Design the sequence.
């Protein structure tokens, strides 16, 4: 797509060129074909079917992965039920904790291998998989290991008990991290698991099965079944699942909520978002620009809590736009395995088409677009970091989740107007506020309808801090004590 500016010419940015610095790929030993991980071992799918998973940076087929059909899903749920009844629910918390500690440590030891595989299968820059995804995934296992023998102190005198078999379905944007967010609390609380990773990013979940084996986790405590949306639907519908934990789109979340309505299944949903990143005139603008860039171009904008709407106070609009235009020209888009890469590949062709579609609509509705003018690789799925200006809340690009590296910029005059715009969305997952006044932040944040609000920073996560949304961004929390609540029933329930 041709780059068009909004009439304000970007200051020429000086871009240093570096020699390529690729992370060695050889550390990953891929098998040509992967089975389903059921009852502690890899098995052939009863469906007899396999599907390929690609490297979105060059369209290379990395491996074939088993497709779980109805009989496979049933087999996995039965293995989880047996493990729950015979082993896991009988183990004292301190014994469960030992397994979780072991898993966390092995993951740390194998972190480079996991980081490379995550970047290969999903397209995210190695810098992120190495510095964010894998360390946080390991931290989630460590954190929950610490809870496993202290659950009775978590709920003020009410004794918790596990729910049973948890069916867990995760998306492709943080494949290993979402797995850790789901499996660590479930196991800490004494549940067993059947987890389905996303179709385009199953490989780190399958490598994780080796970690479970290394940690000698009892067979059937975690089962990983690969497949597509139909596999996920079969897991949701299975009568012997006690709890469904889903992270993904609001559209699929609604279908799942309908499917479990009227059953005894517990449900938590972590869905989409359209976060406002709000910059006041008293903010440190350079710091804010870095946060805005991180908030939307981090992980190609494939982030549910991405700061995809930038709300700028009118008085500083010209300087913010000028600095933003300059800064996006400095982003390095390209080989996810290169340690200098800022923005990697779009996860799939389908997602690329969706992003292109939204930017086209943005243009048709009158927005101005400016983009990073970098060269893009000839193969694979790529999209230039993009800024859309001249946008109001009437525009589609300000309302709908694009889930790509596309920032929609809006303006406001007063804090009240900023609150109104920020909350004028069907979502409510996260928000960012940039101001040098603590009092302003505190007063302002309490009016925002968002589950997570960052001040003078963005996209910071910690296993002890609960994460989750308001409104159509879902319900239930992951992380912290709040996250444990989703995997236990309390005395009297
Ligand atoms: P998606 O289409 O909803 O898919 C999520 C998962 O659900 C995938 O494993 C998918 O399988 C599976 N699935 C699809 N249809 C299903 C059905 N009818 N029943 C059960 N499972 C089904 O979402 P996505 O496009 O992969 O991920 C992007 C979305 O996730 C965005 O909206 C983003 O905001 C949201 N997200 C939210 C959070 C959060 O914490 N709130 C975190 C990350 C992402 P296949 O992929 O194999 O088809
Ligand atoms: Mg892939």
Sequence:
């Amino acid at each position: 797509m041709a780059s068009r500016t909004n009439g304000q010419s970007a200051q020429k940015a000086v871009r240093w060129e570096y020699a390529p610095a690729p992370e060695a790929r050889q550390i990953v030993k891929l098998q040509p074909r992967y089975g389903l991980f059921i009852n502690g071992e890899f098995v052939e799918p009863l469906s007899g079917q396999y599907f390929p998973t690609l490297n979105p940076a060059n369209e290379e087929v990395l491996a074939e992965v088993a497709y779980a059909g109805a009989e496979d899903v049933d087999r996995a749920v039965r293995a989880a039920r047996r493990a729950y009844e015979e082993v896991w629910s009988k183990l004292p918390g301190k014994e469960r904790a030992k397994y979780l500690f072991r898993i966390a440590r092995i993951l740390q030891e194998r972190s480079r291998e996991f980081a490379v595989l995550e970047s290969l299968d999903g397209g995210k820059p190695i810098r992120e998989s190495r510095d964010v995804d894998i360390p946080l995934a390991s931290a989630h296992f460590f954190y929950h290991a610490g809870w496993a023998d202290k659950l009775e102190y978590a709920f003020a005198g009410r004794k918790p008990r596990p729910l049973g078999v948890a069916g867990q379905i995760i998306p492709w944007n943080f494949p290993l991290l979402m797995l850790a967010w789901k499996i660590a609390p479930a196991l800490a609380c004494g549940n067993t698991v059947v987890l389905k990773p996303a179709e385009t990013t199953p490989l780190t979940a399958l490598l994780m099965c080796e970690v479970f084996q290394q940690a000698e986790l009892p067979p059937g405590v975690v089962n990983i079944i690969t497949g597509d949306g139909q596999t996920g639907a079969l897991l949701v519908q299975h009568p012997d699942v006690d709890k469904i934990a889903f992270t993904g789109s609001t559209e699929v979340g609604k279908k799942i909520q309908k499917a479990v309505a009227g059953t005894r299944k517990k449900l938590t949903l972590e869905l989409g978002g359209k976060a406002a990143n709000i910059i006041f005139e008293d903010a440190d603008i350079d710091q804010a620009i870095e946060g805005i860039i991180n908030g939307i171009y981090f992980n190609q904008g494939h982030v549910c809590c991405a700061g995809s709407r930038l709300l700028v106070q009118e008085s500083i609009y010209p300087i913010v736009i000028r600095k933003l235009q300059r800064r996006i020209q400095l982003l390095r888009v390209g080989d996810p395995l290169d340690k200098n890469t800022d923005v990697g590949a779009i996860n799939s062709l389908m997602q690329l088409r969706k992003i292109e579609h939204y930017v086209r609509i943005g243009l048709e509705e009158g927005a101005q677009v400016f983009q990073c003018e970098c060269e893009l690789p000839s193969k694979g799925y790529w999209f230039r970091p993009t800024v859309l200006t001249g946008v109001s809340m009437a525009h589609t690009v300000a309302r709908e989740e694009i889930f790509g590296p596309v920032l929609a910029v809006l303006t406001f005059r007063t804090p009240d107007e900023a609150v109104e715009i920020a909350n004028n969305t069907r979502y409510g997952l996260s928000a960012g506020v940039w101001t040098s006044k603590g009092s302003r932040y505190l007063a302002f944040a309490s009016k925002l309808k968002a589950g997570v609000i960052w001040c003078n920073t963005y996209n910071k996560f910690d296993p002890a801090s609960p994460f989750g949304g308001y409104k159509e961004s879902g319900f239930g929390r992951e992380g912290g004590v709040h996250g444990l609540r989703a995997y236990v029933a309390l005395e009297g329930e």
